[in-house]
Write a structure and sequence with these properties.
By secondary structure, the protein is an all-alpha fold. The chain folds into two domains: 36 residues, no CATH class; 70 residues. The chain contains five helices and no strands. Helix 1 packs across helix 2 and helix 4 packs across helix 5. The relative contact order is 0.07. The model has no long low-confidence stretch (mean pLDDT 83).
Length: 134
């Protein structure tokens, strides 16, 4: 990539050298695994909060979530580059957790027997009235 990275068709030229793979496969592998600028560490808590805020802003504006812009902004803010695939996987895992929690909450509400409050007469300790027999 060092000698071909500046060319527009660098992945096409690499595919000619390695005919087993297509240019799209080579480009995907480079962007998700082989690029030396990628950070191998998992997302930090601050990065996750940043990603959630960006996604929320896109959803409130009824815009399509542009993952490459979020990757770029994340790199500018924190100095580490993550793949857009890692960000999408993070978001999908959060959505799965929210959905599972919502379903569990709904199931618990329907399956739970109603709890009646315990009856405690207020005048039981009153010396002036007759104590009820319960």
């Amino acid at each position: 990539m060092a000698s071909l990275g500046h060319l527009d068709d660098c992945f096409v030229r690499i595919a000619q050298i390695i005919p087993l793979y297509r240019p799209r496969q080579i480009a995907s592998r480079w962007r998700n695994k082989l690029d030396p600028q990628l950070s191998p560490e998992p997302l930090t808590t601050r990065e996750k909060i940043f990603i959630n805020n960006k996604i929320r802003n896109c959803e409130m504006d009824d815009e399509h979530i542009c993952w490459r812009e979020i990757v770029r902004d994340l790199e500018i803010a924190f100095g580490r580059r993550h793949t857009d695939n890692k960000l999408r996987n993070y978001r999908n895992s959060i959505l799965r957790i929210w959905k599972r929690n919502r379903e569990n909450l709904a199931m618990n509400q329907f399956n739970r027997a109603p709890i009646e409050p315990k009856f405690v007469p207020k005048f039981i300790d009153c010396p002036f009235r007759m104590n009820p027999m319960f």
